[in-house]
Amino acid sequence: MSLQTPTALSRVNLHYAIQAFAQAAGGVFLLAVLLKAGVSVPVALLFQAGIVAGRFVLRPMVLPLAKRTGIKPLLIAGTLATAAYYALFAYLGGPGPILILLSAVSSIGYLLYWLSFHAYFAALGDPAQRGGQVGLREAMVAGVGVVAPLAGAWALTAGGPKIAFLLVGLVQALAIVPLIGAPNVPVARTPPEGYRMPRLGLGLMFGDGLFAAGYHFVWLIALFLTLGESYAAFGGAAAVAAIAGAAGALFLGRRIDTGRGRRAVVIAYAAAAVIIVLRALGVGTPWLAVLANAGGALMVALVTPVMMTPVYNLSKGSNCTLRFHIATEGAWDAGCFVGCVGAAALVAAGLPLSVPILIALAAIALLVAQLLRYYGRLQA
To answer: Quick check: 209 and 335 in contact, CB under 8 A?
Structure first.
């Protein structure tokens, strides 16, 4: 039976939308809650670096499990482990042993989840329609993102972190329901004949991890501080941003599938560079920070199909999607670790948060050079 069925992909997209609700209602607030609990900015960034370092170290252990179970059970386990992480976050009281435990549980949960999700999505999707499929997925996430951060901000304000994160953990756990009837994807016990690991996949994911450090993690801290450490204002800014994101994902994803990949790269990452500069300028200026945050959601909707289409297609072409993503997700962790540790060092040295945000510009240069070569070969 072919794995590439509309029903299978629809189940995965519904699963992803539910977990995206949990991410937008709780995950986006995690660093903000750390700051509220008395954790300093450099320590918060090192906490994030510790999570990705833990994932990097634990990653080789996944393959033996996957050989026995296939990919879907790992995706379900990662979903539930992430739910446990959110529930544990409800009991964070500040710096201390619970923070170390959170880092360990998060490493396991995010390792199992994102590794298996990307491998699963790559296996179920159709390379000829990949851009549109990724675009539709991201448009769904953008739609969810309008409501979820408002719900998260309300729960944090009305009930406090304990109630809010327990509820978020429950939502995350419910994301396994659409997967119950989805097909499993087996993993060969030995690398299949013709298995290959394109270096492009490693380079792209390292660059994307480095980009995420400045664009996403440093920015979340900067935005929260700029908005006066208000959960309501922070959630409102995230909701406004999500409204801007949906149309961009659908528009650019389809242009990739019609052979306009190089143009899509230029559009997406030119927008990314502008948004990064706006975010750096917006630190300390609430109205500009909200504007830059909204523009960032549109930018992510543009960038994700451009970035993930080659990654998923290279994965499927490697003949073993899981082995491919074990390597490439490790490269993402390495890039994010470098970015977060570098950002923590810059902040600890007394530089404003606007400086480490600009780390993302170096990542853009690395990504654009690789993506233009990839899409150029397709269009030649």
So the answer is: yes
Residue reference for tokens 């070569």: 373
Q: Say which CATH class 6-177+197-379 falls into.
A: mainly alpha
Domain borders along the chain are: 6-177+197-379
Q: What pLDDT sits at residue 281?
A: 95
For residue 233, give Cα distances in angstroms to 62, 165, 228: 39, 18, 8
Taking the C-alpha atoms of residue 95 and residue 86, their distance in angstroms, rounded to an integer, is 17
**Residue 133: per-residue pLDDT:** 65
CB 198 within 8 A of CB 12: no
Q: For residue 175, what pLDDT is reported?
A: 94
Asked whether the whole model's pTM tops 0.85, one would answer no
Residue 350 falls in which region: left (phi positive, over 0), alpha (psi -120 to 50) or beta: left
Terminal-residue alpha carbon distance, the chain: 34
Residue 310 CB-half CA count within 13 A: 29
The CA-atom distances, in angstroms, between 287 and each of 223, 253, 259, 291, 357 are 11, 30, 38, 6, 18
Reading the block at residue 380, the tokens are 């030649």
Yes or no: say if 22 and 175 are a contact pair by the CB < 8 Å rule.
Answer: yes
